[in-house]
Design a protein that fits this description.
The chain has six helices and eight strands; from the N terminus they run βββαβααβαββαβα. By secondary structure, the chain is α/β, with parallel strands linked by helices. The protein has a single domain, classed as Alpha/Beta hydrolase fold, catalytic domain (Rossmann fold, 3-Layer(aba) Sandwich), CATH 3.40.50. The radius of gyration is 16 Å and the shape is globular.
Length: about 240
Protein backbone atom coordinates (compact mmCIF):
# COMPACT_ATOMS: atom_id res chain seq x y z
CA UNK A 1 0.00 0.00 0.00
CA UNK A 2 1.10 3.53 -0.63
CA UNK A 3 -0.11 7.06 -0.07
CA UNK A 4 0.30 10.03 -2.40
CA UNK A 5 1.62 13.31 -1.05
CA UNK A 6 2.01 16.61 -2.86
CA UNK A 7 4.90 18.99 -2.28
CA UNK A 8 5.48 22.30 -4.03
CA UNK A 9 8.79 22.89 -5.75
CA UNK A 10 9.20 26.42 -7.13
CA UNK A 11 5.44 26.84 -7.56
CA UNK A 12 5.11 23.46 -9.29
CA UNK A 13 3.23 20.66 -7.52
CA UNK A 14 5.08 17.34 -7.36
CA UNK A 15 3.47 14.06 -6.38
CA UNK A 16 5.45 11.78 -4.10
CA UNK A 17 4.32 8.18 -3.69
CA UNK A 18 5.15 6.97 -0.19
CA UNK A 19 5.41 3.25 0.64
CA UNK A 20 5.50 2.18 4.28
CA UNK A 21 6.96 -1.04 5.72
CA UNK A 22 5.29 -2.98 8.49
CA UNK A 23 5.92 -2.04 12.10
CA UNK A 24 6.21 1.24 13.99
CA UNK A 25 9.83 2.00 13.11
CA UNK A 26 11.84 4.11 13.06
CA UNK A 27 12.65 2.66 9.64
CA UNK A 28 15.44 3.45 7.23
CA UNK A 29 14.27 5.27 4.11
CA UNK A 30 14.88 5.16 0.37
CA UNK A 31 14.30 7.77 -2.31
CA UNK A 32 13.58 5.79 -5.46
CA UNK A 33 14.19 7.69 -8.71
CA UNK A 34 12.13 6.68 -11.73
CA UNK A 35 13.34 5.52 -15.08
CA UNK A 36 12.00 7.60 -17.94
CA UNK A 37 10.31 5.40 -20.61
CA UNK A 38 6.96 4.90 -18.86
CA UNK A 39 7.59 6.91 -15.72
CA UNK A 40 7.52 10.27 -17.46
CA UNK A 41 3.69 10.08 -17.68
CA UNK A 42 3.25 9.59 -13.93
CA UNK A 43 4.32 7.29 -11.13
CA UNK A 44 0.89 5.65 -11.28
CA UNK A 45 1.68 4.36 -14.79
CA UNK A 46 5.10 2.99 -13.91
CA UNK A 47 4.55 -0.63 -12.95
CA UNK A 48 8.26 -1.35 -12.65
CA UNK A 49 8.88 1.46 -10.18
CA UNK A 50 5.73 0.75 -8.16
CA UNK A 51 6.60 -2.92 -7.73
CA UNK A 52 10.24 -2.14 -7.04
CA UNK A 53 9.23 0.34 -4.33
CA UNK A 54 6.89 -2.23 -2.82
CA UNK A 55 9.70 -4.80 -2.71
CA UNK A 56 11.97 -2.43 -0.83
CA UNK A 57 9.11 -1.69 1.58
CA UNK A 58 8.67 -5.44 2.12
CA UNK A 59 12.32 -5.49 3.15
CA UNK A 60 11.77 -2.87 5.85
CA UNK A 61 12.34 0.44 4.07
CA UNK A 62 10.08 3.46 3.85
CA UNK A 63 10.22 4.42 0.17
CA UNK A 64 9.46 7.78 -1.43
CA UNK A 65 9.04 7.96 -5.23
CA UNK A 66 8.98 11.57 -6.50
CA UNK A 67 7.45 12.40 -9.87
CA UNK A 68 10.47 14.33 -11.08
CA UNK A 69 8.85 15.07 -14.46
CA UNK A 70 6.20 17.32 -12.88
CA UNK A 71 7.73 20.34 -14.60
CA UNK A 72 5.96 19.34 -17.81
CA UNK A 73 2.37 18.21 -18.51
CA UNK A 74 2.04 14.45 -18.11
CA UNK A 75 0.87 14.17 -21.70
CA UNK A 76 3.97 15.96 -23.03
CA UNK A 77 6.22 13.76 -25.13
CA UNK A 78 9.22 11.95 -23.75
CA UNK A 79 11.47 13.73 -26.26
CA UNK A 80 10.57 17.11 -24.74
CA UNK A 81 11.34 15.94 -21.23
CA UNK A 82 14.66 14.45 -22.26
CA UNK A 83 15.64 17.61 -24.12
CA UNK A 84 14.54 20.07 -21.42
CA UNK A 85 15.56 18.07 -18.33
CA UNK A 86 17.47 20.17 -15.82
CA UNK A 87 19.77 19.03 -13.05
CA UNK A 88 19.12 22.16 -10.99
CA UNK A 89 15.37 21.45 -10.96
CA UNK A 90 16.02 17.81 -10.12
CA UNK A 91 18.22 18.73 -7.17
CA UNK A 92 15.30 20.75 -5.79
CA UNK A 93 12.94 17.82 -6.32
CA UNK A 94 15.24 15.47 -4.44
CA UNK A 95 15.67 17.93 -1.57
CA UNK A 96 11.88 18.22 -1.22
CA UNK A 97 11.53 14.44 -1.32
CA UNK A 98 14.25 13.93 1.28
CA UNK A 99 12.61 16.44 3.61
CA UNK A 100 9.21 14.79 3.20
CA UNK A 101 10.62 11.35 3.94
CA UNK A 102 12.77 12.55 6.84
CA UNK A 103 9.74 14.25 8.42
CA UNK A 104 7.77 11.01 8.66
CA UNK A 105 7.35 9.97 12.29
CA UNK A 106 8.37 6.39 11.56
CA UNK A 107 11.49 7.22 9.51
CA UNK A 108 15.03 7.63 10.83
CA UNK A 109 16.29 10.71 9.00
CA UNK A 110 19.92 9.63 9.54
CA UNK A 111 19.32 6.44 7.55
CA UNK A 112 18.05 7.54 4.15
CA UNK A 113 19.50 6.37 0.83
CA UNK A 114 18.79 7.01 -2.83
CA UNK A 115 18.37 4.37 -5.55
CA UNK A 116 17.55 4.75 -9.23
CA UNK A 117 17.33 2.82 -12.48
CA UNK A 118 18.21 3.98 -16.00
CA UNK A 119 17.45 7.74 -16.07
CA UNK A 120 16.85 7.39 -12.36
CA UNK A 121 20.30 5.88 -11.99
CA UNK A 122 21.78 9.16 -13.14
CA UNK A 123 19.35 10.96 -10.82
CA UNK A 124 20.56 8.85 -7.89
CA UNK A 125 24.14 9.92 -8.62
CA UNK A 126 22.96 13.53 -8.80
CA UNK A 127 21.12 13.14 -5.50
CA UNK A 128 24.25 11.86 -3.81
CA UNK A 129 26.05 14.96 -5.07
CA UNK A 130 23.45 17.38 -3.68
CA UNK A 131 22.19 15.71 -0.48
CA UNK A 132 25.06 15.37 2.00
CA UNK A 133 22.70 13.77 4.53
CA UNK A 134 22.30 10.60 2.45
CA UNK A 135 23.66 7.43 4.00
CA UNK A 136 24.06 5.50 0.73
CA UNK A 137 23.49 5.66 -3.03
CA UNK A 138 22.82 2.83 -5.49
CA UNK A 139 22.65 3.41 -9.22
CA UNK A 140 21.44 0.87 -11.76
CA UNK A 141 22.79 1.40 -15.28
CA UNK A 142 22.57 5.18 -15.11
CA UNK A 143 23.78 6.78 -18.34
CA UNK A 144 24.63 10.35 -19.34
CA UNK A 145 26.58 10.95 -16.13
CA UNK A 146 29.34 12.54 -18.20
CA UNK A 147 26.90 15.00 -19.79
CA UNK A 148 25.52 18.29 -18.43
CA UNK A 149 21.72 18.52 -18.37
CA UNK A 150 20.35 22.03 -18.15
CA UNK A 151 21.81 25.51 -18.50
CA UNK A 152 24.92 26.45 -16.55
CA UNK A 153 25.25 22.98 -15.00
CA UNK A 154 28.40 20.84 -15.02
CA UNK A 155 28.46 17.21 -16.10
CA UNK A 156 27.23 15.14 -13.17
CA UNK A 157 30.49 13.19 -13.09
CA UNK A 158 32.33 16.41 -12.24
CA UNK A 159 30.42 16.57 -8.94
CA UNK A 160 31.80 13.28 -7.64
CA UNK A 161 33.83 15.18 -5.05
CA UNK A 162 30.60 16.35 -3.42
CA UNK A 163 29.42 12.80 -2.69
CA UNK A 164 29.69 11.99 1.01
CA UNK A 165 28.13 8.52 1.11
CA UNK A 166 29.12 5.08 -0.19
CA UNK A 167 27.99 4.26 -3.74
CA UNK A 168 27.01 0.95 -5.30
CA UNK A 169 26.68 0.55 -9.06
CA UNK A 170 25.07 -2.22 -11.11
CA UNK A 171 25.73 -2.46 -14.84
CA UNK A 172 25.31 -4.76 -17.82
CA UNK A 173 28.44 -5.52 -19.81
CA UNK A 174 26.41 -5.31 -23.03
CA UNK A 175 25.11 -1.82 -22.22
CA UNK A 176 26.22 1.21 -24.24
CA UNK A 177 24.59 3.89 -22.07
CA UNK A 178 26.50 3.67 -19.83
CA UNK A 179 29.15 1.78 -21.76
CA UNK A 180 31.83 -0.22 -19.92
CA UNK A 181 34.15 2.74 -20.61
CA UNK A 182 31.65 5.11 -18.99
CA UNK A 183 31.47 2.82 -15.96
CA UNK A 184 35.27 2.84 -15.69
CA UNK A 185 35.26 6.64 -15.83
CA UNK A 186 32.62 6.85 -13.08
CA UNK A 187 34.61 4.49 -10.90
CA UNK A 188 37.77 6.49 -11.52
CA UNK A 189 36.00 9.74 -10.59
CA UNK A 190 34.79 8.22 -7.33
CA UNK A 191 38.22 6.82 -6.56
CA UNK A 192 39.84 10.19 -7.19
CA UNK A 193 37.27 11.83 -4.91
CA UNK A 194 37.90 9.27 -2.17
CA UNK A 195 34.33 7.94 -2.31
CA UNK A 196 33.90 4.37 -1.08
CA UNK A 197 32.17 2.42 -3.85
CA UNK A 198 31.50 -1.01 -5.23
CA UNK A 199 30.59 -1.62 -8.86
CA UNK A 200 29.12 -4.84 -10.22
CA UNK A 201 29.00 -5.77 -13.91
CA UNK A 202 26.97 -8.64 -15.38
CA UNK A 203 28.14 -10.51 -18.44
CA UNK A 204 25.41 -11.05 -21.01
CA UNK A 205 23.18 -8.37 -19.50
CA UNK A 206 22.34 -5.09 -21.19
CA UNK A 207 20.60 -1.89 -20.29
CA UNK A 208 17.54 -2.28 -18.07
CA UNK A 209 18.35 -5.84 -17.00
CA UNK A 210 16.11 -5.52 -13.92
CA UNK A 211 13.05 -4.48 -15.94
CA UNK A 212 10.83 -7.50 -15.43
CA UNK A 213 8.12 -5.81 -17.50
CA UNK A 214 10.36 -5.69 -20.58
CA UNK A 215 11.18 -9.24 -21.78
CA UNK A 216 13.68 -7.91 -24.33
CA UNK A 217 15.82 -6.43 -21.56
CA UNK A 218 15.09 -8.48 -18.45
CA UNK A 219 17.91 -10.75 -17.30
CA UNK A 220 16.53 -12.77 -14.41
CA UNK A 221 19.82 -14.11 -13.07
CA UNK A 222 21.56 -10.72 -13.10
CA UNK A 223 18.48 -9.03 -11.65
CA UNK A 224 18.19 -11.33 -8.66
CA UNK A 225 21.90 -11.21 -7.95
CA UNK A 226 21.73 -7.41 -8.03
CA UNK A 227 18.75 -7.50 -5.66
CA UNK A 228 20.75 -9.57 -3.18
CA UNK A 229 23.74 -7.26 -3.45
CA UNK A 230 21.83 -3.98 -3.20
CA UNK A 231 19.88 -5.18 -0.17
CA UNK A 232 23.14 -6.26 1.48
CA UNK A 233 24.68 -2.87 0.64
CA UNK A 234 21.69 -1.01 2.08
CA UNK A 235 21.63 -3.24 5.14
CA UNK A 236 25.29 -2.52 5.77
CA UNK A 237 25.04 1.24 5.39
CA UNK A 238 21.56 1.87 6.81
CA UNK A 239 21.65 -0.53 9.74
Amino acid sequence: MHTIHTVTVQDSDMEVFLFQPEGPGPHPGIILAQHIPVGHTGVENDVFTLKTAARYAENGYAVAVPFIFHWWPKEAGIEIKREEFRDDWTALDLRATFDLLADQDNVDSARIAIIGHCWGGRVSWLGACHLPELAACAMFYGGRVKLPLGPDTPPAIDLAGDIQCPVAGFFGSEDQNPSPEDVNDMSAALTEAGVDHEFHSYDGAGHGFQMFDNPDRFHAEASEDAWEKVLAFMGKNLS
